[in-house]
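A reminder before we start the practical. When you read a complex entry, don't treat the lines as separate problems. The point of joint prediction is that each chain is placed relative to the others, so the output describes one connected object in space. Small molecules and nucleic acid strands, if listed, are placed in the same frame. In the example below there are two entries. Take a minute to note the order of the lines before looking further.
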Amino acid sequence: MSFSHVLQSIFSALFVASILRISTPIILAALGGLISELSGATNITLEGTMLVAAFTGVVVSAYAKSLVLGVLCGVLAGLLISVLLAIFHLHLKTDIFLAGIALNIMATGGTIFLLYILTGDKGNSSTLASATLPFVQIPVIKDIPFLDTVLSGHNILVYLSFVLTWLVAVFLYRTRLGVHLRAVGENAEAAGSVGINVLQIRWIALLLSGFMASLGGLYMSMAYLNLFQRDMTAGRGFIALAAVYLGGRKPWGVLIAAIIFGGFDALSNQLGSLKIAPQLVQVIPYVATIVALVVYNLRQQAVALERMRRFQDKELTSQEAGGE
Amino acid sequence: MRKIFANAAVRELLRIVLAVSIALLLGLIVTLLVSEDPWGAYKAFLVGPLTKFNRFGDWIEESITLIFLGLSVAIAFKAKQFSLGAEGQMVLGALVSGSIILFVPIESAFLRITVALLAAMVVGFLWGAIPGYLKAYVNANEIVTTLMLNTIALKLYDYFLTYKIKPEGAGYTASDFLPNAYRVPSFIPKFAGNLYDMFSRQTNITLFLYFMVASILIGWFLMYRTPFGYELRMVGSNIKFARYGGINTKKVIVLAFAISGIFAGLAGAHLAMGIHNKLILNITVGLGFEGIVVATMARNNPLFVPLSGLAYGYLRAGADIMERASDMSREMVLIVQALIILLVTAEGILPVIQQRVGQGSNKGLSKVVDSPAATEGGSHVI
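Here is the predicted structure of the whole assembly.
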């Protein structure tokens, strides 16, 4: 396939649609990461939470023959990881990173272990007849060419991820709880001293975080694919964490960052048809993540320096004013 | 009695033994719940590695890799840098050392092996320095950067193996075997006669055993007997204090990551030159985070790494045997591993021993706010 073919396919409606599809789990997990990050607890169990939710959703929906039950249990199982993280980090004083690493290992091992018990296969759940989340045709748009391919016919969670971004923005900036949550993340001692229950806020933040990541996991196994595969999240939970930083720790920024990652992923799929070794193309999103992280942090440092300079200027002028 | 418990090292040891026992007990409960023959399965898990001589060899070989990884993680964690980059450094160490043995025409076996080992160390050092530099100077979250670098390293390994190293026309993705003349010799010298025959026929334990011992001692010396080690521990216990004390914390952080990479590079060299004797696909599979549990059980003290490495290597070897001998899958050991990390690092669990002799802890908000040092325990030991 020639280069122009690749260009053509990149600028096609199908490609844009594929970006949306690939970005969705990252958006959902990143929103979860954002909430806990803003409360001052970096949640590295996004990955494990997604995996556990993806697994439970498939298994329960297959055995109970009920989509609703599958989704419900998937979310509950994902929340269990958050609960464990909260207990170990907030009450038993485990370092949050070490607890997170342990829970991720448990999620990886536990899902493969149970998959083998249930299906006799360690690779995937293809023998289970699991349910799929509904796909939605949007009434008017589905009749407009180009737009129908891009916007219509996606899974319900694709649309929900955008709605949730808006809801998270409202929650964080327009509600009392959201403001408290950010205050705790800014300075827990100060927040505590004005009567905010730090422990309670972090519990809520971790649970909300787990809820979002669970939805991302359910999307992986019940929409993006129609089965569970071992390690199927493949680092998306960590990419989501990177998206939180890249997005400037703001809901809409995080959404855009997640879509950028999704875009690189989709791009690497397309470039794969050129005569480039696939391994080298697959590296792109990961290099991009590091570059993005560096760019974000450099910008943060510049902002901090600027603030300090302005503060010093102000001090100087006020000193001069006082001296006169 | 009170005096014994007052000894921090004894207290730590008790804590860890208790944590491992609880984790194993929970493993047994899981086995009872799911296995048709739980006692048989668990017996294979617990005593399997000692039942045959070649299994004993597998255990030791596996433990050598784990101990290198444990040293790598211990150094980074001691400075409280949560580097998860061992896997990437390891796979590049394997790639570089294996390629040198295969392709670099150095006549002398001694020289070629030495160059291969040095190259593995250098590549580990450099690959480790990247996240270190990004953390120290750009404040980039090391968990994210190291995980990204791992994937990049794994893809690079795949790429070189598939397109450059694999013999042309081969139906499998692997290198040729390393030439016999350039293999790392058995750890028992030939003149040992019977003993040499016994070990070299049944096991594949090589000189890496001695490299490992040297690495442990060097790691310990570096951490507890050099100015750099002091700075490393200071940065780990209180980075602000270290900075006020005039320590170049940025340099220390970069070096902590990079030196940690040296040991991971050696672990990779052991995979390529000691265990597989060729480069294969997914050479590091299942080893990614194992260094963390080894270092955690050793409380990030290099002298305790061999103990925890052997203990954990034993569990892993046992899990392999259990999988072959019963209906249990080896992933059970991952669950046990996660439990060990959680139980050992939770300052709030198993506090009984500490509290009885401890100076009393300040309760309240501040404990929630400043999450306590996960790696603190180790610093009391020596």
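Discuss with your neighbour: Residues 25-135+151-234 of chain A form one domain. What might explain this?
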